[in-house]
Amino acid sequence: MGADIRLLDAPFAPGAAVDAFAAAHPQAGGITSFTGQVRLDSDVLALELSHYAPLTLPGMTALGEQVLARWPLAGLLIWHRTGLMRPGEPIVLVAAAARHRRDAFQAADYAIDHLKSDAWFWKREQRADGWHWIEPREQDHADLARWRESPA
Amino acid sequence: MVTLVFLGRLAGQAGGATRQLPAPLDWAGLLGALDTVLAAQIASDRVRLALNGALLADKTQLQAGDGDEVALLPPVSGG
Questions:
Q1: Domain count, chain A
Q2: Cα gap B24→B63, rounded to integer Å
Q3: Is there a smaller number of Cβ atoms within 10 Å at the N or the C end of chain B?
Q4: B interface toward A at CB cutoff 8 Å?
Q5: Is residue B79 part of a domain?
Q6: Nearest beta carbon to residue B50 from set A55, A119, A140
Q7: Could you list the residue range(s) of the whole structural domain that residue A99 is in?
Q8: Shortest Cα–Cα distance, B12 to chain A (Å)
Q9: What pLDDT, in 10s, does the model give residues A51-75?
Q10: What is the CATH number of the domain that holds A84?
C-alpha cells in the first residue's frame, strides 16, 4: 500500500478528499484527518508557501514511508498546498486509515508534527506593510521532540 | 554555468530566485561571488546547501560543475 502524497498548486476541498479516501479503504475501521488552514487574522492578507521541488516532494514521500513503517495502516494521505493562499483556505490535509482508531490518530499526529517542522517549505505573510517571512516556531520543534522521547 | 537557487528569505536578499555563476564552483568561489552580507548568511550554520537536489553534509566541500544546480536553503518555516 503506497501513500497518496501530493503537492498542490491550487485550492482543494479537504472534505471531499477525506470522503474519497474513506471510501477507498473500506477495510479500515477508523479514519482520522487533520486539516490546516490559513488562520483568519486581521493583519494577514495572504500567505505564500514556496518549496524546492527536488527536496520537498521526496521529503514528504520519505515521511509517508516512515509513517507506514511505524503504524499498521490501511491508507495514508498527505496533501500540501504551495503558492498563494487567502485566510480560510486549506494548506495541508493529512488522513490516516487503520483497522483501529489509536493507530489512525497517532499516525496522523506524527505526520503533521513532522510536516510542520521538518518539511521543505518556506512561508511568508502579506500584511498591510508588506511581506514578512515566518520563522520556525519553538512549539513546532517541541511537538516533534515528543516522538523522539516516547516510542508510539 | 552553475545555477544557484535561493530559497525563502534568501531570494529577497539575493535580488532574485536564481543566479548563474561560471563553472566550476567551489565553496570559496561561491562566497566570493556573493556580496558580503549574503555570503555571511550563506556561511551561517542555519543555511544548508543541496547539489542537484542532494543535501550536502558539509557545504564547504561544494564542488559544482557545468550544468549543476546549487540550492541555498535557509531554515524552513514548516508546512
A1: 1
A2: 7
A3: N
A4: 5, 7-9, 11-12, 50, 52-53, 55, 69, 71, 73-79
A5: no
A6: A55
A7: 4-149
A8: 10
A9: 999 999 999 999 999 999 999 999 9
A10: 3.90.1170.40
